[in-house]
Amino acid sequence: MDATVVAKGRVEVRGGTLKVSRGQANKQSLEVGPETQVIGRNEACDLVLDDRKVSAVHMELVATERGVRVRDLGSRNGTFIGDTRVGEVYLMKPTSLTVGESLLEFSPTTPEQVDIPEVAQFGPLVGVSQGMRGVFERCRKAAPTDLTVLILGETGCGKELVAQAIHQASSRANKPFVVVDCGAIPPSLAESALFGHERGSFTGAVDKRISPFVEADGGTIFLDELGELPVDVQPKLLRALAEQRIKAVGSNNYRPVNVRVIAATRRDLVREVNAGTFRSDLYFRVAQLRIELPPLRERLEDIPALVRKMITDLGDPSANDRVTTDSLERLMRHDWPGNVRELRNVIAVALAFGKEGPIDLAQHLAPLVSASESTPTRGRTFQDAKREVLARFEREYFTALYAECSGNVSEIGRRAAMERAHVRGYLRRHGIGDPKKSSEP
Ligand SMILES: Nc1ncnc2c1ncn2[C@@H]1O[C@H](COP(=O)(O)OP(=O)(O)OP(=O)(O)O)[C@@H](O)[C@H]1O
User: Fold this and answer.
1) Which CATH superfamily is domain 121-292 in?
2) Which residues does residue 181 pair with via DSSP β-bridges, in sequence order?
3) pLDDT attached to residue 116
4) Which fold would CATH assign to domain 298-364?
5) Ligand 1 atom closest to Cα of 161?
6) How far, in Å, from the CA of 123 to the mean position of ligand 1?
7) Domain Sigma-54 factor interaction, which positions (predicted)?
8) For residues 163 and 147, what is the distance between their CA atoms, to the nearest angstrom?
9) Which ligand 1 atom minimizes the distance to the CA of 151?
């Protein structure tokens, strides 16, 4: 297994301290570093506020290069700075935050150097973007533990592959990796699909069904689309995870199981916890570690490495030399609603048609849909859809300005009426231009 980290890069993250200046809490202050911290009423939160106007999982904070990112997690009563209700803000100066009836005072601390691996691979996963290198680092930390992991991300961005990679890099690697797609189970059969059933235990139970927890014994179970699990089965799953034993439908006996759980979801489970449609205790049991996979449009710089890997995996490494530079550039201007899976399909089709001569990878690409033409919902929440449109707008705006100003960061800043540090942040986030150049003063 080549899940090795060969070299380290460093980034400077800006953290801070949050002090509870009004209200009851399990501690008086919280240090905010590069690991996400969650604040809410639920006792599993990092800072627990005993305040009835605070939601179970109210907001999260994390140190980033741009300051401490505060994100409201769809709380009922909101997160406020003064009279302004905030969704997502970056804090670099002392700031008072109000949640429910509690008051939290934020003060920044000295920026901290954090290692990020420079290696562009973790097992079968490739990617050079800072986002993916952060993901590899979290996978590397997760692998040797038995902690449950919740992987979040849009369709096709690699959640199952991340779960496999963690399993393969763990001591359970030579035991089974069993996938359960919770989204494909009819609600009435969910309990039996998770825990198995005895023969004749209900109408239609002609044969005994072995639980995937038994099939995965000693290994890892991957619960895909966990958010789809019916509410009435959620406490049963929680009990099974807590007690490490299961009971098949129609059986009176518990059976011990030794299984590591990795789950994934496309849905915003925290919002569902606050809405009461997903149990908070199960959420915290499954999300001992959270890994967020950025969508491909936010890490277009990963495309060349992904293309190389996929062409090699599809069985023709020599075809890499025939890929035209122009087509690679066109792939990097696409917005990839189907993420890495869409990229893989585009490559497979192009290879099938390009047995010899130059390969135009982009020839079968769906035309780029502009933000104004795209279907704004695509089954997503308002916040997710808005975030996506904004990200696309930012990328188009800075790509155009970067070209107009020949990459001169000061000039871009002047025209955008924005500080250079912020310009550099946007360029880096959207993979525009030469990242080394954009980090120069
Ligand atoms: N970082 C990566 N490196 C190499 N291949 C990748 C990477 N990410 C995803 N892929 C490939 O992209 C395809 C889609 O990935 P995967 O099935 O893991 O996505 P997913 O997020 O689980 O999708 P869904 O939400 O639809 O279940 C797979 O063929 C996978 O091998």
Assistant:
1) P-loop containing nucleotide triphosphate hydrolases (3.40.50.300)
2) 224
3) 65
4) Helicase, Ruva Protein; domain 3 (1.10.8)
5) 18
6) 13
7) 125-352
8) 12
9) 21
